[in-house]
Amino acid sequence: MAFDQQTEELAVKAAQGDQGALNDLLRRIEPDVMRHSGRFLPCRQDAEEACQDALLQVARNIHRFEGRSKFSTWLHVVVANSARSTYRSLKRRSVEQAGELPQQRPDPRRTSVIAGSRVDILDAMEELESRKPDLIQALVLRDVSQLEYAEIAEQLGLPLGTVKSRIHEARKQVRQTLGESYT
């Protein structure tokens, strides 16, 4: 998600309390937020739910955007968190409806390779977050949002070397969770 200067300016105005700017900003970013949510969640309806949640989070928390980094960088974090939250919520609902989680990975004959991979990756990310929560944000910003290391360091307020180290360790942990077929 790279935005033009006008979008970045709308975000600054919205963060300062301009309601009209916030409304314009939400309309402008919605297609990008939807596309980005779809990178996390294979089912369009799930991605739409994550998109709406992300837009709601932007509206509620725009005052927290300080303008130290680009709005697009800040938004990556919001969208990634919303998509992961939606996934966890869907997983909980599935457990409640089915009574228990299936113990096996998706059947490749009934699940697309791409969709199955995304679900496996989300599971691995969820496991990583529960074991080593300090690693997950850097991994998501680099490998899912495809931000540059310097942007990630700026967004997280960490030294560049720390960011690179966290991403390396997170990738190693995810590879271990996913098994040899994902290396």
TrEMBL record:
<dbReference type="InterPro" id="IPR036388">
    <property type="entry name" value="WH-like_DNA-bd_sf"/>
</dbReference>
<dbReference type="InterPro" id="IPR013325">
    <property type="entry name" value="RNA_pol_sigma_r2"/>
</dbReference>
<keyword id="KW-0731">Sigma factor</keyword>
<dbReference type="GO" id="GO:0003677">
    <property type="term" value="F:DNA binding"/>
</dbReference>
<dbReference type="GO" id="GO:0016987">
    <property type="term" value="F:sigma factor activity"/>
</dbReference>
<comment type="similarity">
    <text>Belongs to the sigma-70 factor family. ECF subfamily.</text>
</comment>
<keyword id="KW-0804">Transcription</keyword>
<dbReference type="Pfam" id="PF04542">
    <property type="entry name" value="Sigma70_r2"/>
</dbReference>
<dbReference type="InterPro" id="IPR014284">
    <property type="entry name" value="RNA_pol_sigma-70_dom"/>
</dbReference>
<dbReference type="InterPro" id="IPR007627">
    <property type="entry name" value="RNA_pol_sigma70_r2"/>
</dbReference>
<dbReference type="GO" id="GO:0006352">
    <property type="term" value="P:DNA-templated transcription initiation"/>
</dbReference>
<dbReference type="InterPro" id="IPR039425">
    <property type="entry name" value="RNA_pol_sigma-70-like"/>
</dbReference>
<feature type="domain" description="RNA polymerase sigma factor 70 region 4 type 2">
    <location>
        <begin position="137"/>
        <end position="173"/>
    </location>
</feature>
<keyword id="KW-0238">DNA-binding</keyword>
<dbReference type="Pfam" id="PF08281">
    <property type="entry name" value="Sigma70_r4_2"/>
</dbReference>
<feature type="domain" description="RNA polymerase sigma-70 region 2">
    <location>
        <begin position="25"/>
        <end position="93"/>
    </location>
</feature>
<keyword id="KW-0805">Transcription regulation</keyword>
<dbReference type="InterPro" id="IPR013249">
    <property type="entry name" value="RNA_pol_sigma70_r4_t2"/>
</dbReference>
<dbReference type="InterPro" id="IPR013324">
    <property type="entry name" value="RNA_pol_sigma_r3/r4-like"/>
</dbReference>
<protein>
    <submittedName>
        <fullName>RNA polymerase subunit sigma-24</fullName>
    </submittedName>
</protein>
